[in-house]
Design a protein that fits this description.
Length: about 300
């Protein structure tokens, strides 16, 4: 794997990261901790140095498993976590300095560190990007030594464009795959010019672009690929990138044909579109089991 410079941070990371939503268990039909730890170790064994988690993944379990990985291994790696989705209701007015400070303190405890590598606002309402006081609060947390860098995870290109207007936003995490190509058209070049790191999330459209699913595939009742297809619990884009399941399967069936027509590998038309030569995205590919650590989940 090739390495990428992670924006202005100076970090050198491999172009594939470990997306740790699945190992939290919640909203993915459950996860076995032994298998989750095996997947984390396999990721390190194969050169992955960037792990993306959030305080709500398994109500903190994902963060705690990564903390355990740090205790069990000596290799250095970077951890990006997220804050904001613990708010109930999840509204812009909840993104206060006090709440952000509390979320950061909880993640510090879960991850067992004195300073967080990277904190991302976790897909906040659009209004948050027009509230400078939110980003000032993050600046204060940097000054206080609780976080090293901060960024955002967004649902829409328009939010990404607004976020990078703030000078200390170091990274933007955005959905990018064969179903969602607008970031390449409208955002990546602007991020490059500002030296903002880009994390391509949901690169395999919740696994659909892996080609493993069929019309008879069944998911557990507590898996978001069952209950969130219409956006019942959170933004529809988080599940199959917002694409109708039947429509998505039909598109995936066409990928080998498109690959032949375009003279590229199937991966270039599927999940691997997140890794563009000369560009800056890093794929945060999700994993649950050891065999997925070099494969796919989200």
């Amino acid at each position: 794997m090739q390495t990428r410079t992670f924006g202005r941070t100076g970090w050198q990371v491999y172009e594939i990261g470990f997306g740790a939503w699945g190992i939290g268990g919640g909203q993915w039909g459950g996860a076995d901790e032994t298998e989750s730890m095996a997947a984390l170790h396999a990721a390190l064994d194969n050169g992955i140095t960037f792990f993306d988690t959030a305080d709500v993944y398994g109500d903190g379990l994902s963060e705690r498993l990564i903390a355990r990985l740090r205790r069990e291994r000596r290799e250095p790696f970077y951890v990006a976590t997220k804050a904001g989705r613990r708010l109930s209701p999840h509204v812009a007015s909840g993104y206060t300095a006090a709440n952000l400070g509390a979320f950061v303190d909880r993640s510090l405890t879960n991850l067992g560190v004195e300073r967080l590598d990277l904190v991302q606002l976790h897909c906040p309402p659009t209004e948050v990007y027009y509230r400078p006081e939110v980003f000032a609060a993050l600046d204060d947390l940097v000054t206080a030594g609780k976080i090293r860098f901060y960024g955002v995870s967004v649902e829409r290109v328009e939010e990404a464009l607004k976020a990078i207007e703030y000078p200390h936003v170091q990274s933007v995490q955005i959905i990018f795959n064969a179903f969602r190509l607008r970031p390449a058209e409208l955002f990546f070049e602007k991020a490059r010019k500002r030296q903002v790191a880009v994390i391509a999330r949901v690169p395999l459209a919740s696994g659909m672009l892996s080609g493993r699913f069929t019309r008879t595939t069944e998911f557990p009742a507590d898996d978001h690929r069952t209950f969130n297809r219409e956006g019942a619990m959170f933004d529809r884009g988080e599940t199959f990138s917002g694409v109708d399941y039947e429509t998505g399967l039909a598109a995936v069936e066409r990928l080998p044909v498109i690959a032949v027509e375009e003279g590229v590998g199937v991966g270039a038309t599927g999940g691997e579109c997140g890794r563009i030569p000369g560009e800056i995205p890093l794929d945060a590919v999700g994993h649950v089991r050891q065999e997925h650590a070099l494969g796919e989940r989200s």
